[in-house]
Protein backbone atom coordinates (compact mmCIF):
# COMPACT_ATOMS: atom_id res chain seq x y z
CA UNK A 1 0.00 0.00 0.00
CA UNK A 2 1.38 3.43 -0.90
CA UNK A 3 2.28 5.85 1.87
CA UNK A 4 -0.03 8.66 2.97
CA UNK A 5 1.58 11.93 4.08
CA UNK A 6 -0.20 13.74 6.94
CA UNK A 7 -3.44 11.96 6.14
CA UNK A 8 -3.91 13.97 2.94
CA UNK A 9 -1.36 13.10 0.26
CA UNK A 10 -1.22 9.58 -1.22
CA UNK A 11 2.32 9.06 -2.53
CA UNK A 12 2.84 7.22 -5.83
CA UNK A 13 5.89 6.82 -8.03
CA UNK A 14 9.14 8.66 -7.44
CA UNK A 15 9.68 11.47 -9.96
CA UNK A 16 13.22 12.34 -8.99
CA UNK A 17 15.84 12.53 -6.27
CA UNK A 18 18.55 15.07 -5.60
CA UNK A 19 20.93 16.25 -2.93
CA UNK A 20 18.11 17.80 -0.90
CA UNK A 21 15.31 15.25 -1.11
CA UNK A 22 12.90 13.05 -3.03
CA UNK A 23 10.01 14.12 -5.27
CA UNK A 24 6.94 11.90 -5.62
CA UNK A 25 3.86 12.12 -7.74
CA UNK A 26 1.02 12.28 -5.24
CA UNK A 27 -2.75 12.52 -5.08
CA UNK A 28 -4.37 15.12 -2.88
CA UNK A 29 -7.10 12.97 -1.30
CA UNK A 30 -9.15 16.05 -0.52
CA UNK A 31 -9.36 17.46 -4.04
CA UNK A 32 -8.39 14.47 -6.19
CA UNK A 33 -5.72 16.62 -7.85
CA UNK A 34 -2.31 15.24 -8.82
CA UNK A 35 0.58 17.18 -7.26
CA UNK A 36 4.34 16.86 -6.96
CA UNK A 37 5.35 16.36 -3.32
CA UNK A 38 8.94 16.96 -2.25
CA UNK A 39 10.22 15.44 0.98
CA UNK A 40 13.28 17.25 2.30
CA UNK A 41 15.55 14.48 3.60
CA UNK A 42 18.54 16.54 4.72
CA UNK A 43 18.88 17.57 8.38
CA UNK A 44 17.92 21.21 8.79
CA UNK A 45 21.50 22.06 9.76
CA UNK A 46 22.48 21.18 6.18
CA UNK A 47 19.84 23.33 4.47
CA UNK A 48 20.60 26.74 3.01
CA UNK A 49 17.89 29.40 2.64
CA UNK A 50 17.65 33.19 2.68
CA UNK A 51 16.43 33.62 6.25
CA UNK A 52 18.75 30.97 7.72
CA UNK A 53 20.14 32.16 11.07
CA UNK A 54 23.75 31.83 12.17
CA UNK A 55 22.59 29.66 15.08
CA UNK A 56 22.64 25.88 14.63
CA UNK A 57 19.94 25.23 17.26
CA UNK A 58 17.10 23.12 15.90
CA UNK A 59 14.48 25.46 17.36
CA UNK A 60 15.86 28.57 15.67
CA UNK A 61 16.34 26.75 12.37
CA UNK A 62 12.72 25.56 12.44
CA UNK A 63 11.51 29.10 13.14
CA UNK A 64 13.58 30.45 10.27
CA UNK A 65 12.40 27.69 7.95
CA UNK A 66 8.81 28.54 8.95
CA UNK A 67 9.42 32.08 7.72
CA UNK A 68 10.99 30.78 4.51
CA UNK A 69 8.05 28.50 3.72
CA UNK A 70 5.68 31.36 4.47
CA UNK A 71 7.52 33.49 1.91
CA UNK A 72 7.72 30.76 -0.73
CA UNK A 73 4.02 29.95 -0.42
CA UNK A 74 3.17 33.59 -1.14
CA UNK A 75 5.07 33.74 -4.44
CA UNK A 76 3.01 33.96 -7.64
CA UNK A 77 4.57 34.40 -11.08
CA UNK A 78 3.84 32.87 -14.51
CA UNK A 79 7.37 31.47 -14.76
CA UNK A 80 7.68 29.79 -11.37
CA UNK A 81 6.00 26.73 -9.91
CA UNK A 82 4.36 27.91 -6.71
CA UNK A 83 4.42 26.10 -3.39
CA UNK A 84 0.82 24.94 -2.84
CA UNK A 85 1.01 23.42 0.62
CA UNK A 86 3.70 22.57 3.11
CA UNK A 87 4.29 21.21 6.56
CA UNK A 88 6.32 18.73 8.56
CA UNK A 89 5.94 14.96 8.57
CA UNK A 90 5.72 12.82 11.71
CA UNK A 91 9.53 12.82 11.96
CA UNK A 92 9.71 16.61 11.88
CA UNK A 93 11.12 16.75 8.33
CA UNK A 94 9.68 19.43 6.02
CA UNK A 95 7.74 18.68 2.86
CA UNK A 96 5.97 20.83 0.31
CA UNK A 97 3.70 20.30 -2.67
CA UNK A 98 3.86 21.90 -6.09
CA UNK A 99 1.81 21.81 -9.26
CA UNK A 100 2.42 18.62 -11.21
CA UNK A 101 3.44 19.40 -14.77
CA UNK A 102 2.39 16.92 -17.46
CA UNK A 103 4.80 16.44 -20.36
CA UNK A 104 7.37 18.87 -18.96
CA UNK A 105 10.88 18.88 -20.44
CA UNK A 106 14.09 20.31 -19.05
CA UNK A 107 15.16 23.53 -20.72
CA UNK A 108 18.01 21.69 -22.48
CA UNK A 109 15.70 19.10 -24.03
CA UNK A 110 13.04 21.70 -24.90
CA UNK A 111 15.62 23.88 -26.67
CA UNK A 112 16.58 21.14 -29.14
CA UNK A 113 15.57 22.09 -32.67
CA UNK A 114 14.56 25.65 -31.77
CA UNK A 115 15.95 28.75 -33.45
CA UNK A 116 18.36 31.09 -31.69
CA UNK A 117 15.64 33.70 -30.92
CA UNK A 118 13.42 30.93 -29.53
CA UNK A 119 16.23 29.69 -27.29
CA UNK A 120 16.89 33.21 -26.05
CA UNK A 121 13.16 33.59 -25.35
CA UNK A 122 13.41 30.62 -22.96
CA UNK A 123 16.41 32.22 -21.23
CA UNK A 124 14.53 35.52 -20.88
CA UNK A 125 11.60 33.78 -19.20
CA UNK A 126 14.03 32.19 -16.75
CA UNK A 127 15.53 35.63 -16.04
CA UNK A 128 12.06 37.10 -15.46
CA UNK A 129 11.45 34.41 -12.84
CA UNK A 130 14.78 35.25 -11.20
CA UNK A 131 14.03 38.99 -11.27
CA UNK A 132 10.80 38.31 -9.40
CA UNK A 133 12.49 36.03 -6.84
CA UNK A 134 15.37 38.45 -6.27
CA UNK A 135 12.91 41.34 -5.82
CA UNK A 136 11.34 39.34 -2.98
CA UNK A 137 14.73 38.61 -1.39
CA UNK A 138 14.82 34.98 -2.57
CA UNK A 139 17.90 33.44 -4.17
CA UNK A 140 17.40 30.31 -6.23
CA UNK A 141 20.72 28.77 -5.12
CA UNK A 142 20.33 25.58 -7.17
CA UNK A 143 19.61 26.46 -10.80
CA UNK A 144 20.28 23.54 -13.14
CA UNK A 145 18.43 21.97 -16.09
CA UNK A 146 16.26 19.74 -13.86
CA UNK A 147 14.98 22.85 -12.06
CA UNK A 148 14.06 24.77 -15.22
CA UNK A 149 11.20 23.00 -16.97
CA UNK A 150 9.35 23.90 -20.15
CA UNK A 151 5.74 23.08 -21.01
CA UNK A 152 4.89 24.15 -24.54
CA UNK A 153 6.65 27.51 -24.80
CA UNK A 154 6.44 28.43 -21.12
CA UNK A 155 9.38 28.15 -18.74
CA UNK A 156 8.61 27.13 -15.15
CA UNK A 157 11.37 27.46 -12.55
CA UNK A 158 11.10 25.26 -9.47
CA UNK A 159 13.00 24.31 -6.31
CA UNK A 160 13.91 27.91 -5.50
CA UNK A 161 14.75 29.26 -2.08
CA UNK A 162 15.95 26.04 -0.46
CA UNK A 163 19.18 24.25 -1.30
CA UNK A 164 21.65 21.83 0.19
CA UNK A 165 24.71 23.35 1.82
CA UNK A 166 27.77 23.40 -0.44
CA UNK A 167 29.32 20.34 1.20
CA UNK A 168 26.25 18.27 0.31
CA UNK A 169 25.59 19.91 -3.06
CA UNK A 170 29.10 19.18 -4.34
CA UNK A 171 28.38 15.48 -3.85
CA UNK A 172 25.90 15.87 -6.73
CA UNK A 173 27.54 16.41 -10.11
CA UNK A 174 24.31 17.95 -11.41
CA UNK A 175 24.56 20.79 -8.91
CA UNK A 176 28.20 21.78 -8.78
CA UNK A 177 28.60 21.89 -12.55
CA UNK A 178 26.33 24.96 -12.40
CA UNK A 179 27.82 26.65 -9.34
CA UNK A 180 29.50 30.03 -9.63
CA UNK A 181 33.27 30.06 -8.93
CA UNK A 182 32.88 32.06 -5.73
CA UNK A 183 30.33 29.56 -4.35
CA UNK A 184 32.69 26.68 -5.10
CA UNK A 185 35.31 28.59 -3.10
CA UNK A 186 32.99 28.76 -0.10
CA UNK A 187 31.53 32.23 -0.46
CA UNK A 188 27.77 32.69 0.11
CA UNK A 189 25.33 32.62 -2.79
CA UNK A 190 24.18 35.98 -4.19
CA UNK A 191 22.06 37.30 -7.03
CA UNK A 192 25.27 37.33 -9.08
CA UNK A 193 25.80 33.59 -8.50
CA UNK A 194 22.28 32.88 -9.78
CA UNK A 195 23.07 34.94 -12.88
CA UNK A 196 26.30 32.99 -13.42
CA UNK A 197 24.20 29.82 -13.63
CA UNK A 198 22.01 31.47 -16.26
CA UNK A 199 25.23 32.01 -18.20
CA UNK A 200 26.10 28.31 -18.00
CA UNK A 201 22.63 27.36 -19.23
CA UNK A 202 22.76 30.01 -21.97
CA UNK A 203 26.09 28.63 -23.20
CA UNK A 204 24.68 25.10 -23.19
CA UNK A 205 21.63 26.20 -25.20
CA UNK A 206 23.57 28.23 -27.77
CA UNK A 207 26.81 26.23 -27.98
CA UNK A 208 25.44 22.74 -27.38
CA UNK A 209 27.92 21.86 -24.64
CA UNK A 210 29.04 22.86 -21.16
CA UNK A 211 31.33 25.93 -21.22
CA UNK A 212 34.13 24.04 -19.46
CA UNK A 213 35.84 20.68 -19.84
CA UNK A 214 33.69 18.76 -17.37
CA UNK A 215 35.53 15.50 -18.04
CA UNK A 216 38.92 16.95 -17.23
CA UNK A 217 40.86 15.53 -14.30
CA UNK A 218 40.67 18.88 -12.47
CA UNK A 219 37.09 19.88 -13.29
CA UNK A 220 36.80 22.45 -10.51
CA UNK A 221 40.06 24.02 -11.67
CA UNK A 222 38.58 24.31 -15.17
CA UNK A 223 35.52 26.10 -13.77
CA UNK A 224 37.62 28.42 -11.62
CA UNK A 225 40.27 29.32 -14.19
CA UNK A 226 39.25 27.96 -17.60
CA UNK A 227 37.93 30.00 -20.53
CA UNK A 228 35.03 28.79 -22.70
CA UNK A 229 35.40 28.40 -26.46
CA UNK A 230 33.38 31.43 -27.52
CA UNK A 231 33.46 30.46 -31.19
CA UNK A 232 30.88 27.74 -30.49
CA UNK A 233 28.15 30.20 -29.44
CA UNK A 234 25.42 30.64 -32.05
CA UNK A 235 23.80 33.98 -32.76
CA UNK A 236 26.68 36.36 -33.29
CA UNK A 237 28.99 38.56 -31.29
CA UNK A 238 26.39 40.49 -29.31
CA UNK A 239 24.84 37.33 -27.84
CA UNK A 240 28.31 36.01 -27.09
CA UNK A 241 29.09 39.24 -25.22
CA UNK A 242 25.98 38.81 -23.05
CA UNK A 243 26.93 35.25 -22.11
CA UNK A 244 30.55 36.29 -21.53
CA UNK A 245 29.33 38.89 -19.02
CA UNK A 246 27.10 36.36 -17.24
CA UNK A 247 30.04 33.92 -16.97
CA UNK A 248 32.52 36.46 -15.62
CA UNK A 249 34.71 34.93 -12.90
CA UNK A 250 34.24 37.94 -10.63
CA UNK A 251 30.67 38.57 -9.41
CA UNK A 252 31.07 42.34 -9.80
CA UNK A 253 31.81 41.89 -13.51
CA UNK A 254 28.41 40.29 -14.17
CA UNK A 255 25.14 42.15 -14.73
CA UNK A 256 23.98 43.75 -11.48
CA UNK A 257 20.41 42.44 -11.83
CA UNK A 258 18.37 39.88 -13.74
CA UNK A 259 16.42 42.73 -15.35
CA UNK A 260 19.62 44.18 -16.82
CA UNK A 261 20.61 40.77 -18.16
CA UNK A 262 17.16 40.49 -19.75
CA UNK A 263 17.55 43.92 -21.38
CA UNK A 264 20.97 42.87 -22.72
CA UNK A 265 19.49 39.77 -24.38
CA UNK A 266 16.75 41.86 -26.00
CA UNK A 267 19.33 44.34 -27.27
CA UNK A 268 21.48 41.52 -28.67
CA UNK A 269 18.46 40.34 -30.67
CA UNK A 270 17.80 43.87 -31.88
CA UNK A 271 14.55 44.10 -29.95
CA UNK A 272 13.26 46.52 -27.36
CA UNK A 273 12.27 45.12 -23.98
CA UNK A 274 8.46 44.75 -23.84
CA UNK A 275 6.33 46.57 -21.31
CA UNK A 276 5.61 44.88 -18.02
CA UNK A 277 2.75 42.41 -18.59
CA UNK A 278 -0.41 42.48 -16.49
CA UNK A 279 0.31 38.95 -15.25
CA UNK A 280 3.81 39.83 -14.03
CA UNK A 281 2.59 43.10 -12.50
CA UNK A 282 -0.14 41.15 -10.69
CA UNK A 283 2.43 38.75 -9.24
CA UNK A 284 4.06 41.63 -7.34
CA UNK A 285 0.69 42.84 -6.05
CA UNK A 286 -0.39 39.40 -4.84
CA UNK A 287 2.84 38.79 -2.96
CA UNK A 288 2.91 42.15 -1.17
CA UNK A 289 4.68 42.15 2.17
CA UNK A 290 2.80 41.38 5.38
CA UNK A 291 2.94 44.60 7.40
CA UNK A 292 1.43 46.32 10.38
CA UNK A 293 0.00 43.27 12.17
CA UNK A 294 2.88 41.93 14.24
CA UNK A 295 1.15 42.42 17.60
CA UNK A 296 -1.90 40.50 16.40
CA UNK A 297 0.29 37.76 14.93
CA UNK A 298 2.17 37.44 18.21
CA UNK A 299 -1.13 36.82 20.00
CA UNK A 300 -2.08 34.04 17.61
CA UNK A 301 1.34 32.40 17.72
CA UNK A 302 1.11 32.43 21.51
CA UNK A 303 -2.26 30.67 21.16
CA UNK A 304 -0.51 27.89 19.20
CA UNK A 305 2.08 27.51 21.93
CA UNK A 306 -0.60 27.25 24.60
CA UNK A 307 -2.72 24.83 22.59
CA UNK A 308 0.25 22.47 22.25
CA UNK A 309 -0.29 21.83 25.95
CA UNK A 310 -3.98 21.02 25.35
CA UNK A 311 -5.15 24.55 26.13
CA UNK A 312 -7.23 25.18 23.04
CA UNK A 313 -9.00 28.45 22.27
CA UNK A 314 -11.46 30.23 19.99
CA UNK A 315 -10.51 33.56 18.40
CA UNK A 316 -12.50 36.15 16.48
CA UNK A 317 -10.80 38.62 14.13
CA UNK A 318 -13.04 41.57 13.31
CA UNK A 319 -12.62 44.53 10.99
CA UNK A 320 -14.11 46.31 8.01
CA UNK A 321 -13.95 44.86 4.52
CA UNK A 322 -10.48 45.28 3.01
CA UNK A 323 -8.68 46.03 6.28
CA UNK A 324 -6.53 42.89 6.06
CA UNK A 325 -8.34 40.08 7.92
CA UNK A 326 -7.71 37.48 5.21
CA UNK A 327 -4.01 38.36 4.98
CA UNK A 328 -3.58 37.96 8.74
CA UNK A 329 -5.33 34.59 8.52
CA UNK A 330 -3.03 33.44 5.70
CA UNK A 331 0.08 34.41 7.62
CA UNK A 332 -1.21 32.56 10.68
CA UNK A 333 -2.04 29.51 8.55
CA UNK A 334 1.55 29.41 7.31
CA UNK A 335 2.89 29.60 10.85
CA UNK A 336 0.57 26.80 12.01
CA UNK A 337 1.46 24.50 9.11
CA UNK A 338 5.19 24.73 9.64
CA UNK A 339 4.64 24.16 13.36
CA UNK A 340 3.19 20.77 12.43
CA UNK A 341 -0.51 21.60 12.78
CA UNK A 342 -3.29 20.45 10.47
CA UNK A 343 -5.15 23.49 9.11
CA UNK A 344 -8.70 23.19 7.76
CA UNK A 345 -11.00 25.97 6.71
CA UNK A 346 -14.58 26.85 5.97
CA UNK A 347 -16.25 29.97 4.65
CA UNK A 348 -19.73 31.37 5.07
CA UNK A 349 -21.44 32.88 2.04
CA UNK A 350 -24.40 35.20 1.66
CA UNK A 351 -27.60 33.20 1.53
CA UNK A 352 -25.77 29.96 2.35
CA UNK A 353 -27.74 26.93 3.53
CA UNK A 354 -27.78 26.20 7.28
CA UNK A 355 -24.40 24.81 8.43
CA UNK A 356 -22.94 25.31 4.92
CA UNK A 357 -19.77 26.82 6.38
CA UNK A 358 -18.97 23.45 8.04
CA UNK A 359 -19.06 21.48 4.79
CA UNK A 360 -15.42 21.88 3.73
CA UNK A 361 -14.26 21.43 7.33
CA UNK A 362 -16.03 18.07 7.51
CA UNK A 363 -14.39 16.92 4.28
CA UNK A 364 -10.95 17.72 5.70
CA UNK A 365 -11.53 16.16 9.11
CA UNK A 366 -12.94 12.98 7.56
CA UNK A 367 -9.44 12.23 6.24
CA UNK A 368 -7.85 12.17 9.68
CA UNK A 369 -10.42 10.63 12.05
CA UNK A 370 -12.43 7.42 11.89
CA UNK A 371 -16.12 8.15 11.31
CA UNK A 372 -18.84 5.66 12.21
CA UNK A 373 -21.63 4.79 9.72
CA UNK A 374 -24.14 6.73 11.84
CA UNK A 375 -21.87 9.80 11.99
CA UNK A 376 -21.30 9.61 8.23
CA UNK A 377 -25.05 9.48 7.59
CA UNK A 378 -25.63 12.52 9.82
CA UNK A 379 -22.77 14.55 8.31
CA UNK A 380 -23.79 13.70 4.76
CA UNK A 381 -26.88 15.87 5.21
CA UNK A 382 -24.62 18.94 4.94
CA UNK A 383 -21.61 17.33 3.19
CA UNK A 384 -23.17 15.45 0.24
CA UNK A 385 -19.82 14.35 -1.27
CA UNK A 386 -18.72 12.56 1.90
CA UNK A 387 -19.53 9.12 0.50
CA UNK A 388 -17.32 9.77 -2.52
CA UNK A 389 -14.47 10.95 -0.29
CA UNK A 390 -14.76 7.91 2.01
CA UNK A 391 -15.36 5.58 -0.96
CA UNK A 392 -18.48 4.07 0.59
CA UNK A 393 -22.24 4.21 0.15
CA UNK A 394 -23.80 6.13 3.03
CA UNK A 395 -27.48 5.54 3.87
CA UNK A 396 -29.77 8.34 5.13
CA UNK A 397 -29.68 8.96 8.90
CA UNK A 398 -32.47 7.72 11.19
CA UNK A 399 -35.39 10.15 11.06
CA UNK A 400 -35.85 12.70 13.85
CA UNK A 401 -37.91 15.85 14.16
CA UNK A 402 -36.19 19.02 12.95
CA UNK A 403 -35.02 20.22 16.39
CA UNK A 404 -33.53 16.89 17.47
CA UNK A 405 -31.97 16.33 14.04
CA UNK A 406 -30.19 19.67 14.36
CA UNK A 407 -28.97 18.83 17.87
CA UNK A 408 -27.67 15.47 16.60
CA UNK A 409 -25.81 17.23 13.80
CA UNK A 410 -24.25 19.77 16.18
CA UNK A 411 -23.13 17.02 18.56
CA UNK A 412 -21.62 15.01 15.68
CA UNK A 413 -19.66 17.99 14.32
CA UNK A 414 -18.28 18.84 17.76
CA UNK A 415 -17.41 15.21 18.47
CA UNK A 416 -15.36 14.60 15.31
CA UNK A 417 -13.49 17.86 15.91
CA UNK A 418 -12.67 16.80 19.47
CA UNK A 419 -11.44 13.38 18.29
CA UNK A 420 -8.76 14.80 16.01
CA UNK A 421 -5.47 13.03 16.77
CA UNK A 422 -3.25 15.78 15.36
CA UNK A 423 -3.05 19.41 16.56
CA UNK A 424 -5.64 21.20 14.43
CA UNK A 425 -6.48 24.77 13.46
CA UNK A 426 -9.97 25.45 12.08
CA UNK A 427 -10.32 28.71 10.14
CA UNK A 428 -13.81 30.03 9.36
CA UNK A 429 -14.07 33.20 7.28
CA UNK A 430 -16.95 35.67 7.00
CA UNK A 431 -18.93 34.59 10.05
CA UNK A 432 -21.15 37.64 9.59
CA UNK A 433 -22.81 35.72 6.73
CA UNK A 434 -23.11 32.49 8.71
CA UNK A 435 -24.77 33.80 11.85
CA UNK A 436 -27.37 31.00 11.72
CA UNK A 437 -24.62 28.33 11.59
CA UNK A 438 -22.72 29.34 14.71
CA UNK A 439 -24.30 26.84 17.12
CA UNK A 440 -21.62 24.13 16.57
CA UNK A 441 -18.95 26.78 17.19
CA UNK A 442 -20.68 27.92 20.38
CA UNK A 443 -20.80 24.31 21.61
CA UNK A 444 -17.18 23.72 20.60
CA UNK A 445 -15.99 26.86 22.40
CA UNK A 446 -17.24 25.40 25.70
CA UNK A 447 -15.15 22.21 25.46
CA UNK A 448 -12.11 23.28 23.41
CA UNK A 449 -9.94 24.22 26.39
CA UNK A 450 -8.70 20.67 26.97
CA UNK A 451 -7.75 19.91 23.37
CA UNK A 452 -4.96 20.75 20.92
CA UNK A 453 -7.38 22.87 18.92
CA UNK A 454 -7.61 26.47 17.76
CA UNK A 455 -10.66 27.89 16.00
CA UNK A 456 -10.15 31.23 14.27
CA UNK A 457 -13.08 33.08 12.73
CA UNK A 458 -13.28 36.37 10.86
CA UNK A 459 -16.21 38.76 10.61
CA UNK A 460 -17.03 42.31 9.57
CA UNK A 461 -17.61 44.27 12.74
CA UNK A 462 -19.37 47.05 10.84
CA UNK A 463 -22.02 44.56 9.68
CA UNK A 464 -22.35 42.35 12.78
CA UNK A 465 -20.92 44.39 15.68
CA UNK A 466 -22.61 42.19 18.29
CA UNK A 467 -21.40 38.85 16.92
CA UNK A 468 -18.80 38.37 19.72
CA UNK A 469 -21.65 38.34 22.23
CA UNK A 470 -22.78 35.05 20.68
CA UNK A 471 -19.36 33.56 21.47
CA UNK A 472 -18.50 34.78 24.98
CA UNK A 473 -15.70 32.17 25.25
CA UNK A 474 -13.88 33.63 22.23
CA UNK A 475 -10.92 36.00 22.42
CA UNK A 476 -11.29 39.08 20.22
CA UNK A 477 -8.88 40.87 17.88
CA UNK A 478 -10.16 44.02 16.17
CA UNK A 479 -8.05 45.13 13.20
CA UNK A 480 -7.61 48.85 12.67
CA UNK A 481 -6.50 50.47 9.42
CA UNK A 482 -2.79 50.54 8.62
CA UNK A 483 -0.77 53.39 10.07
CA UNK A 484 1.61 55.57 8.04
CA UNK A 485 4.65 53.38 8.74
CA UNK A 486 2.82 50.25 7.56
CA UNK A 487 1.52 52.02 4.44
CA UNK A 488 5.08 53.04 3.57
CA UNK A 489 6.35 49.48 4.10
CA UNK A 490 3.55 47.99 2.00
CA UNK A 491 4.13 50.50 -0.80
CA UNK A 492 7.86 49.76 -0.77
CA UNK A 493 7.29 45.99 -0.96
CA UNK A 494 5.19 46.42 -4.12
CA UNK A 495 6.92 49.33 -5.83
CA UNK A 496 10.50 48.83 -4.67
CA UNK A 497 12.79 50.97 -2.54
CA UNK A 498 12.80 53.74 -5.17
CA UNK A 499 9.34 54.81 -4.00
CA UNK A 500 10.96 56.14 -0.80
CA UNK A 501 12.53 58.87 -2.93
CA UNK A 502 9.00 60.09 -3.74
CA UNK A 503 7.36 60.59 -0.32
CA UNK A 504 4.61 62.71 -1.87
CA UNK A 505 3.22 59.59 -3.58
CA UNK A 506 3.13 57.61 -0.33
CA UNK A 507 1.51 60.56 1.44
CA UNK A 508 -1.16 60.77 -1.27
CA UNK A 509 -1.82 57.03 -1.02
CA UNK A 510 -2.26 57.37 2.73
CA UNK A 511 -4.66 60.30 2.35
CA UNK A 512 -6.81 58.57 -0.26
CA UNK A 513 -6.95 55.09 1.31
CA UNK A 514 -6.89 56.05 5.00
CA UNK A 515 -5.00 52.82 5.64
CA UNK A 516 -7.43 50.35 4.05
CA UNK A 517 -5.06 47.71 2.64
CA UNK A 518 -7.38 46.54 -0.14
CA UNK A 519 -7.99 50.09 -1.37
CA UNK A 520 -4.23 50.78 -1.30
CA UNK A 521 -3.40 47.76 -3.48
CA UNK A 522 -6.27 48.60 -5.85
CA UNK A 523 -5.04 52.17 -6.34
CA UNK A 524 -1.49 50.94 -7.00
CA UNK A 525 -2.89 48.47 -9.55
CA UNK A 526 -4.84 51.24 -11.29
CA UNK A 527 -1.82 53.57 -11.31
CA UNK A 528 0.37 50.84 -12.80
CA UNK A 529 -2.15 50.42 -15.60
CA UNK A 530 -1.93 54.16 -16.27
CA UNK A 531 1.88 54.18 -16.43
CA UNK A 532 2.47 50.69 -17.83
CA UNK A 533 5.09 49.90 -15.16
CA UNK A 534 4.94 49.56 -11.37
CA UNK A 535 8.38 51.16 -11.17
CA UNK A 536 7.13 54.35 -12.90
CA UNK A 537 4.47 55.19 -10.31
CA UNK A 538 6.87 57.21 -8.17
CA UNK A 539 7.55 59.59 -11.06
CA UNK A 540 3.93 60.27 -11.93
CA UNK A 541 1.42 62.79 -10.68
CA UNK A 542 -1.58 60.86 -9.42
CA UNK A 543 -4.55 61.99 -11.54
CA UNK A 544 -7.58 63.25 -9.67
CA UNK A 545 -9.97 61.44 -12.02
CA UNK A 546 -8.52 58.11 -10.97
CA UNK A 547 -9.58 58.56 -7.36
CA UNK A 548 -12.95 60.23 -7.90
CA UNK A 549 -15.67 57.86 -6.73
CA UNK A 550 -13.50 56.03 -4.22
CA UNK A 551 -13.04 52.29 -3.97
CA UNK A 552 -16.27 51.54 -5.84
CA UNK A 553 -14.97 53.15 -9.02
CA UNK A 554 -11.51 51.61 -8.66
CA UNK A 555 -13.05 48.14 -8.37
CA UNK A 556 -15.44 48.79 -11.27
CA UNK A 557 -12.45 49.71 -13.47
CA UNK A 558 -11.08 46.25 -12.89
CA UNK A 559 -14.41 44.55 -13.63
CA UNK A 560 -14.75 46.58 -16.82
CA UNK A 561 -11.70 44.77 -18.22
CA UNK A 562 -13.87 41.70 -18.81
CA UNK A 563 -15.56 41.63 -22.24
CA UNK A 564 -19.31 42.28 -22.19
CA UNK A 565 -20.16 38.79 -23.48
CA UNK A 566 -18.71 37.34 -20.24
CA UNK A 567 -21.05 39.31 -17.97
CA UNK A 568 -23.89 36.75 -17.59
CA UNK A 569 -21.50 34.19 -16.10
CA UNK A 570 -19.96 36.87 -13.89
CA UNK A 571 -23.41 37.75 -12.58
CA UNK A 572 -24.40 34.18 -11.70
CA UNK A 573 -20.99 33.61 -10.09
CA UNK A 574 -21.51 36.61 -7.82
CA UNK A 575 -24.99 35.42 -6.83
CA UNK A 576 -23.68 31.96 -5.83
CA UNK A 577 -20.87 33.22 -3.59
CA UNK A 578 -17.17 34.01 -3.54
CA UNK A 579 -16.14 30.46 -4.50
CA UNK A 580 -17.11 29.43 -8.02
CA UNK A 581 -19.15 26.33 -8.86
CA UNK A 582 -17.65 25.27 -12.19
CA UNK A 583 -20.35 22.68 -12.90
CA UNK A 584 -23.08 25.28 -12.41
CA UNK A 585 -21.24 27.78 -14.61
CA UNK A 586 -20.82 25.20 -17.37
CA UNK A 587 -24.54 24.41 -17.14
CA UNK A 588 -25.38 28.13 -17.49
CA UNK A 589 -23.08 28.52 -20.50
CA UNK A 590 -24.73 25.55 -22.20
CA UNK A 591 -28.31 26.49 -21.24
CA UNK A 592 -27.95 30.14 -22.20
CA UNK A 593 -26.09 29.13 -25.40
CA UNK A 594 -23.20 31.48 -24.70
CA UNK A 595 -20.51 31.48 -27.36
CA UNK A 596 -17.38 30.95 -25.27
CA UNK A 597 -15.68 28.21 -23.25
CA UNK A 598 -15.69 28.23 -19.46
CA UNK A 599 -11.89 27.96 -19.43
CA UNK A 600 -11.60 31.10 -21.56
CA UNK A 601 -13.84 32.96 -19.11
CA UNK A 602 -11.81 31.78 -16.10
CA UNK A 603 -8.50 32.77 -17.68
CA UNK A 604 -9.85 36.18 -18.68
CA UNK A 605 -11.00 36.71 -15.10
CA UNK A 606 -7.57 35.75 -13.82
CA UNK A 607 -5.84 38.06 -16.30
CA UNK A 608 -8.03 40.94 -15.09
CA UNK A 609 -7.28 40.00 -11.45
CA UNK A 610 -11.00 39.49 -10.86
CA UNK A 611 -10.55 35.76 -10.19
CA UNK A 612 -7.82 33.71 -8.62
CA UNK A 613 -7.23 30.12 -7.53
CA UNK A 614 -7.02 29.29 -3.85
CA UNK A 615 -6.55 25.73 -2.60
CA UNK A 616 -7.33 24.44 -6.10
CA UNK A 617 -10.64 26.31 -6.34
CA UNK A 618 -11.54 29.31 -8.47
CA UNK A 619 -12.94 32.28 -6.57
CA UNK A 620 -13.35 36.06 -6.69
CA UNK A 621 -9.96 37.46 -5.70
CA UNK A 622 -11.67 39.67 -3.10
CA UNK A 623 -15.24 39.81 -1.91
CA UNK A 624 -15.32 43.55 -2.70
CA UNK A 625 -15.32 42.58 -6.38
CA UNK A 626 -18.24 40.23 -5.89
CA UNK A 627 -20.18 42.84 -3.92
CA UNK A 628 -19.64 45.40 -6.67
CA UNK A 629 -20.98 42.96 -9.27
CA UNK A 630 -24.06 42.31 -7.11
CA UNK A 631 -24.71 46.00 -6.50
CA UNK A 632 -24.65 46.70 -10.25
CA UNK A 633 -26.80 43.78 -11.43
CA UNK A 634 -29.23 44.97 -14.15
CA UNK A 635 -32.82 44.83 -12.90
CA UNK A 636 -33.88 42.97 -16.04
CA UNK A 637 -31.47 40.12 -15.24
CA UNK A 638 -32.43 39.61 -11.60
CA UNK A 639 -35.42 37.26 -12.18
CA UNK A 640 -33.31 34.58 -13.91
CA UNK A 641 -30.42 34.92 -11.46
CA UNK A 642 -32.27 34.66 -8.15
**Overall form:** globular
Beta content: 5-15%
Sheet with the most strands: spatial strand order: 1-2-3-4-7-6
Mean pLDDT: 85
Strands, total number: 18
Largest sheet: 6 strands, antiparallel
Helix content: 40-55%
Gyration radius over CA: 26 Å
Distance from first to last alpha carbon: 48 Å
Count the DSSP helices.
29
Q: What structural class do the secondary elements suggest?
A: alpha+beta
Provide the CATH architecture of the largest domain.
3-Layer(aba) Sandwich
Uncertain stretches of 5 or more adjacent residues: 165-174
* Annotated CATH topology of the largest domain: Rossmann fold
Number of domains: 4
CATH hierarchy class name of the largest domain? Alpha Beta
Q: Determine the CATH superfamily of the largest domain.
A: P-loop containing nucleotide triphosphate hydrolases
Could you characterize what this model shows?
By secondary structure, the chain is α+β, with helices and mostly antiparallel strands. The protein has four domains: 105-274, Orthogonal Bundle (Transferase(Phosphotransferase), domain 1), CATH 1.10.510.10; 294-478, 3-Layer(aba) Sandwich (Rossmann fold), CATH 3.40.50; 482-548; 558-641, Arc Repressor Mutant, subunit A (Orthogonal Bundle). 43% of the residues lie in helices and 14% in strands. It is built from 29 helices and 18 strands. It has a six-stranded antiparallel β-sheet. The chain has a five-stranded parallel β-sheet with strand order 13-14-15-12-16, with helices on both faces. Strands 8-9-10 form a three-stranded antiparallel β-sheet. Strand 17 and strand 18 (617-620) form a beta hairpin. It starts with a strand and ends with a helix.
